[in-house]
Design the sequence.
């Protein structure tokens, strides 16, 4: 663990979509480092469940149930963070949704609309809202979570989701360029392949294609804690105007491929057994 004591004593972090998955993992790592954290779930039930698991951190953790795919939900989350903690130092737009692995024309219009609204509109407004407050202080960090498609890689059945992540990357870098004299850092997080419900959903079927995906993910994916430790430390230490924090670099990918014959992992059967 990096020594970030000096910068975490009064650091407040807001993480959208942090009642589970990588968002929950990040919240826990920031709390372990002494930060104050505002967690967010889409419902009172999921938010309260996360808060119960964080109960040992006392007043350093708060929670807000809000739909962060819309501006009003994001405004509520931001207001509550200001009310409880007085300001926001790091804001992470982590919330995102995917869809079944289906070709674009096979998805119903409602699904397409929900994915676009959450993954694009939610990130755009989720960047603007904290930025306006941070700009007044001339300091703060905003990070947007990249994902499959951010680098332009294509996979049949993932076009809509991939499109949202590709556009997110452009938006973040362009926003950072426009905000370059504000003192606010605006960057991206690239967690690689993290074993969450979202990743498992892409290989949930029993088809040969899903089995191939599982084999690939077992080589390349990592657990939430491993990735969260890395991302949290890098965010706290980031000093450049537009940080690009990437876990699954090319050297790390190569190392995984070289170790694959000697390291047997099966994230999917473990999850299947736990859920049965």
Sequence:
């Amino acid at each position: 663990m990096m020594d970030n004591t000096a910068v975490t004593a009064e650091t407040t972090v807001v993480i959208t979509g942090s009642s589970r998955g990588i968002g929950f993992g990040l919240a826990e790592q920031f709390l372990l480092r002494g930060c104050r954290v505002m967690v967010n779930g889409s419902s009172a039930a999921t938010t309260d469940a996360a808060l119960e698991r964080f109960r040992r951190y006392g007043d350093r953790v708060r929670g807000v149930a809000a739909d962060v795919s819309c501006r009003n939900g994001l405004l509520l989350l931001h207001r509550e963070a200001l009310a409880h903690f007085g300001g926001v130092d790091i804001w992470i737009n982590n919330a995102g949704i995917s869809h079944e692995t289906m070709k674009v024309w096979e998805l119903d219009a409602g699904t397409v609309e929900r994915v676009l609204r959450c993954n694009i509109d939610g990130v755009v407004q989720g960047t603007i809202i904290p930025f306006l407050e941070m700009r007044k202080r001339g300091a703060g960090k905003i990070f947007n979570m990249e994902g499959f498609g951010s680098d332009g890689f294509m996979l049949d059945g993932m076009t809509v989701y991939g499109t949202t992540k590709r556009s997110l990357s452009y938006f973040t870098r362009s926003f950072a360029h426009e905000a370059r004299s504000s003192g606010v850092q605006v960057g991206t997080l690239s967690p690689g392949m993290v074993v969450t419900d979202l990743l498992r959903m892409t290989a949930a079927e029993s088809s040969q294609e899903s089995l191939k995906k599982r084999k690939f993910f077992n080589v390349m994916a990592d657990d939430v804690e491993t990735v969260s430790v890395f991302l949290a430390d890098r965010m706290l230490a980031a000093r450049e105007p537009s940080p690009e924090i990437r876990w699954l670099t090319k050297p790390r990918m190569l190392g995984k491929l070289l170790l694959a014959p000697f390291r047997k992992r099966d994230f999917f059967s473990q999850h299947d057994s736990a859920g049965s």
The chain has a mean pLDDT of 86. The longest helix spans residues 109-137. The two ends are 36 Å apart (CA to CA).
